[in-house]
């Protein structure tokens, strides 16, 4: 069995969410989908690791959740829209997680966005 | 007969909905963005649409990765919005028009667009933020809606060419409805932004300005772009611009520009606004 290569695979710093990543990330993204319920968000916070195990996350995925490492979660099949639900529980917005992934401080990241409009 | 009054494009960033709810439209950060909508609201007040077809993508509310339709059309009496993970209320439920939805579905399937049909459909910020920014603080929406969901989340995505053709078939479907109904088509999402990977924070102003110009004058040129072209130039999430091409396809070959606005940044995104009418 082999995964098909794609014309977008070589775009730097970009992890296009395709079938291969969706298969890899399915348990993780399914867990994130459950966070649409406030009750589930509280259940996660009560015991993060048990909640991750319930959804069948891999060891690597559970570690990356524990580390709040969004870039790692992306590489492990997380979809950014689903991960945003997880990040929301930690009160991180898309600028916070954008800064984290690009290796910048949040202030520098925001300044970069402003500069892009000038 | 139903008529298309025109088309609107708008970003659908969740932060916009938050800013409206908190009454921050005149804060220094937000004012340059919201000022771009004043002429859009004036145009809407003038033309008074009865119904909006809202082209949007779901971000994990109605659809999960267990089942992702490429194109899905609402055919419900009502479209509620719900908690998408942040506990936010984004506005009142929108009222549908099942007879009109089914007319569109029948026409589109006849034209070989094999849609998923939804008699129950929750709509997230992709749909609600455009409603909120066009009709802010509405206790109830002043028009009916038909949601048209496009997969922009899990590749393979429909190509820009396919979305443009869907828009053309949608325009034909709307125009063939026998009842008098004034319709606007709203293309949402974009413009350039990337939320994931080391390249997060990408904004491409030259590309966006080209897109804003070319969608008016030569949409066929944009329809010749590939999904890769859009991801590369507009970012992995900026690929939502394919939904603008659905709107543009629903209008005629020649359009007149009523209003254009561009502002960077809103959250991590470049925000673009257009109002187009069919040329006389």
What is the element layout, followed by pairings?
The complex is a heterodimer of chains A (118) and B (280).
Chain A: H1 19-24, H2 26-34, H3 38-46, H4 48-54, H5 59-66, H6 70-75, H7 80-89, H8 94-102, H9 106-116
Chain B: E1 2-10, H1 14-21, H2 31-34, H3 38-47, E2 51-56, E3 71-74, E4 78-79, E5 94-95, H4 98-110, E6 116-118, H5 125-134, E7 144-150, H6 160-175, E8 181-188, H7 205-217, H8 219-223, H9 227-234, H10 242-250, E9 255-266, E10 269-278
Parallel strand pairs in B: 1-8, 2-7, 2-8, 3-6
Antiparallel strand pairs in B: 1-10, 3-7, 4-5, 9-10
Helix pairs in contact in B: 1-5, 4-6, 6-10
The assigned CATH architecture of chain B is 3-Layer(aba) Sandwich
Principal-axes geometry of chain A comes out as flat
H and E order of chain B? EHHHEEEEHEHEHEHHHHEE
Determine the mean pLDDT of chain B: 96
Structural commentary:
The complex is a heterodimer of chains A (118) and B (280). Helices cover 64% and strands 0% of the residues of chain A. With 118 residues, chain A is mainly α. Chain A has a domain at 19-92: Dioxygenase LigAB, LigA subunit (Protocatechuate 4,5-dioxygenase, Chain A, Orthogonal Bundle). The termini of chain A are far apart. Chain B has 280 residues and is α/β, with parallel strands linked by helices. Chain B has one domain (2-278): LigB-like (Protocatechuate 4,5-dioxygenase, Chain B). In chain B, 34% of the residues lie in helices and 22% in strands. Chain B has ten helices and ten strands. Chain B has helices at 14-21, 31-34, 38-47, 98-110, 125-134, 160-175, 205-217, 219-223, 227-234, 242-250, and strands at residues 2-10, 51-56, 71-74, 78-79, 94-95, 116-118, 144-150, 181-188, 255-266, 269-278. In chain B, helix 1 crosses helix 5 (125-134). The longest helix of chain B is centred in the middle third of the chain and has 16 residues, at 160-175. The model of chain B has no long low-confidence stretch (mean pLDDT 96). At the A-B interface, helix 2, helix 7, helix 8 and helix 9 of A face helix 9 and strand 9 of B.
């Amino acid at each position: 069995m082999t995964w098909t290569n794609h014309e977008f695979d070589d775009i730097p710093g970009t992890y296009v969410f395709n079938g291969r990543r969706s298969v890899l990330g399915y348990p993780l993204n399914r867990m994130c989908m459950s966070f649409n319920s406030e009750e589930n968000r509280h259940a996660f916070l009560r015991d993060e690791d048990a909640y991750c195990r319930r959804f069948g996350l891999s060891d690597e995925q559970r570690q990356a959740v524990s580390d709040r490492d969004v870039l790692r979660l992306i590489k492990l099949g997380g979809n950014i829209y689903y991960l945003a639900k997880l990040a929301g529980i930690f009160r991180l917005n898309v600028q916070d997680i954008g800064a984290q992934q690009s290796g910048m401080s949040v202030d520098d990241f925001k300044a970069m966005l402003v500069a892009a409009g000038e | 007969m139903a008529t298309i009054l025109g088309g609107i494009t708008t970003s659908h960033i969740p932060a916009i909905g938050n800013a409206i709810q908190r009454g921050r439209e005149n804060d220094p950060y937000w004012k340059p963005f919201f000022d771009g909508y004043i002429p859009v609201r004036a145009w809407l007040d003038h033309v008074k649409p009865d119904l909006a077809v809202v082209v949007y993508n779901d971000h994990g509310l109605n659809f999960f990765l267990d089942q992702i339709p490429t194109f899905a059309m609402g055919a419900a009496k009502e479209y509620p919005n719900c908690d998408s993970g942040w506990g936010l209320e984004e506005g009142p439920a929108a009222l549908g028009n099942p007879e009109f939805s089914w007319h569109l579905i029948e026409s589109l399937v006849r034209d070989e667009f094999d849609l998923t049909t939804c008699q129950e459909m929750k709509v997230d910020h992709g749909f609600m933020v455009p409603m909120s920014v066009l009709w802010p603080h509405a206790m109830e929406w002043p028009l009916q809606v038909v949601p048209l969901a496009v997969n922009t989340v899990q590749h393979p995505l429909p190509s820009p060419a396919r979305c443009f053709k869907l828009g053309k078939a949608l325009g034909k479907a709307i125009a063939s409805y026998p009842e008098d109904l004034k319709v606007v088509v709203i293309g949402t999402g974009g413009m350039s932004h990337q939320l994931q990977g080391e390249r997060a924070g990408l904004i491409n102003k030259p590309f966006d300005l080209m897109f804003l110009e070319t969608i008016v004058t030569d949409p066929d040129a944009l329809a010749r772009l590939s999904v890769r072209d859009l991801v590369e130039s507009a970012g992995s999430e900026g690929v939502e611009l394919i939904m603008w091409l659905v709107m543009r396809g629903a209008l005629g070959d020649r359009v007149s520009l009523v209003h254009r606005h561009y502002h960077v940044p809103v959250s991590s995104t470049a925000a673009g606004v257009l109002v187009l009418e069919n040329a006389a």
